Amino acid sequence: MKKLGKLITSFLAFTLLFGLFMTPSLSHADDQPQANDNYLQKVKDRGKIVMGTSPDFPPYEFTTKINGKSEIVGMDVEISKKIAHDLGVKLVIKPMDFDSLLVALQTGKVDMVLAGMNKTAKREKSVDFSNKYFNGGWNLIIRQEDRDQIKDYHNLETKAVGVQTGTIQYDLMKKKLPKAKMKGMDKNPDLILALKTHKIDAIAMGRPSAEAYANNTAGIVTIKSGITEKISGNSAAFPKGSTSLVNFVNEEIKDIQKKDLIKKQYLPKAGKYMAATSDKSSKKSGKKSPQSSNSMWAYKDYFIAGIGYTLLISAIAVILGFALGVILAFMRLSKNSILHSIATCYIEFIRGTPLMVQLLFIYFGLGTVVNIPALVSGIIAVGLNSAAYVAEVIRSGISSIATGQTEAARSLGLSKKQTMQYIIFPQAMKNIWPALGNEFVSLIKESSIVSIIGVKDLIYQSRIVQADTYRGVAPLVVTMVLYFIVTFGLSRLMKLWEGKMNHDGK
Predict the structure, then answer these.
(1) Which residues lie below 8 Å from residue 52, measured CB to CB, with a gap of 6+?
(2) Which residues are in the ABC transmembrane type-1 domain (predicted)?
């Protein structure tokens, strides 16, 4: 009971310290923008303005291949380019999931968000908005075969409706269709795939994007939603208190609207990019090219780049996780109560919280104190998470060695360090090698979570291919095969090494 009481006390202390560390960081994030009435000048002095967006929303923002390279294009990108040009600074585009964009603003990861976002009273409590620059309304996307059954939202009362999470359409559809099965997803390509595979019956989406997907994807059509509520229109979002930057962008919006640049230049330009990869347009023309054919081989560079990032993250995270795991294992086996408590609290806390939450905390939470790049944040999060599991594997391996081994070694004059180094640890490693191999293989698969903060790993690249080709299944098949090749190859290597260890031990 005493040990349990000490453990609980230590864990509460650890949690309290963690909370105290986190709270100032978040409060700092909230306070920092408030004092930034000279935000515009800071952007100029820095020489760049960072735009946050979710590039799965044509024609606002989406990815395409230009001269063999993946680029984020669209109406919002053109607006941001004009803002950056008139400011005399460089535009940096930082992609991430839609529901992470406002958090990125609050934590200083981006200077502005243009992502077809609507201004709402709830959002205005956290960030500032520019004036409206576009109002496209919104539609429903349905399967072509369901046109006679679904005329507007009234026909969806008992059906499954898909909406991108974090959007105004999600809240509105929940209000209008309380009996419908609402299915929120982070990415629009996932919604399109769910619709085509009969997982959902309709998608609520902004009209320009709905038309873009319908025009470029076989088997689906877009119809009017039938909802008469007025929507605020699309605005750019900024950190709270960055009045100077908001005012500058409002002047830019006035100029854009005066010259009618969106209809005359930005939307037509986005349409040309979409037509280049349109499945329907290529069928009509009868022409096939490496790009318009949408073949996965045409996107081999994307998958190769994704594999490279995945292996890089996994390799460094394995080294970090193993090194820290060994330390934590010995700390937990230590008779020193402080070291034991610290290791126990760390292991239990990390194993008791989702990796996604840990990743977001490191990138956004700690990022308010130290600006940690997305790739480094991903490596740290995956490595620290793996360390907790590796520590338990190593601890169990060491504990599995009979105490007689230690006693015999000590009786022969070996010190504690020598006993552990030459007798106990080598035998423990032989016993736990299969479990460690499983952990390393799992780590490669778990590293896919880093795509949510914009790290260009294999999952991220497959999303790009999905958005660029308007094909949902083929990129996933390629991704699964590549993951299997990597993990199966690693498993075989671990098996060979395990056999070598057993052979050497005989």
Answers:
(1) 94, 95, 96, 101, 104, 105, 109, 110, 112, 113, 115
(2) 307-494
Structural domain span for residue 108: 37-133+234-285
Domain identity same for 182 and 277: no
Task: Report yes or no: 506 and 95 within 8 Å, Cβ to Cβ.
Answer: no
Domain check: are 371 and 466 in the same one?
A: yes
pLDDT tens string for the chain (506 positions)?
A: 445 445 444 544 444 444 444 444 443 334 344 434 789 999 999 999 999 999 988 899 998 878 777 889 999 999 999 999 999 999 999 998 888 899 999 999 999 999 999 998 889 999 999 999 998 888 999 999 999 999 999 999 999 999 998 888 888 888 889 999 999 998 888 899 999 999 999 999 989 889 988 988 889 999 999 987 777 789 999 999 999 999 999 999 999 999 999 999 999 998 888 776 554 444 444 444 434 445 788 888 889 999 999 999 999 999 999 999 999 999 999 989 999 999 999 999 999 999 999 999 999 988 778 888 999 999 999 999 999 999 999 999 988 888 888 888 888 888 888 888 888 888 888 888 888 888 999 999 999 999 989 898 999 999 888 877 778 788 999 999 999 999 999 988 888 887 776 655 54
Residue ranges in 242-373 assigned as alpha helix (H): 243-259, 261, 267-276, 279-285, 300-333, 337-351, 355-360
What's the pTM value of the predicted model, to 2 decimals? 0.78
Q: DSSP state, 298?
A: G
State the total domains in the chain: 3
Say which amino acid occupies 298: A
The domain that holds 453 is classified in CATH as: 1.10.3720.10
Same domain, 244 and 365: no
Domain shared by 214 and 167, yes or no:
yes
Q: Is 311 exposed, middle or buried (0-12, 13-18, 19+ CB in 10 A)?
A: middle
Query: How far apart, in Å, are the Cα atoms of 341 and each of 50, 145, 327, 384, 388?
Result: 42, 62, 13, 18, 14
Same structural domain, 398 and 482: yes
CATH of the domain at 116: 3.40.190.10
Does residue 75 fall inside a structural domain?
A: yes
Residue 125: inside a domain: yes
Q: Are 347 and 470 found together in one domain?
A: yes
Determine contact, residues 484/307, Cβ cutoff 8 Å: no
| Residue where one domain finishes, among candidates 174, 189, 224 | 224
Asked whether residue 126 falls in the same domain as residue 147, the answer is: no
Between the alpha carbon of residue 380 and those of residues 146, 286, 371, 497, the distances in Å are 47, 49, 13, 27
Residue with tokens 């873009």: 212
66: tokens are 């230009």
Main-chain dihedrals φ then ψ at residue 471, nearest 5 degrees: -115, 130
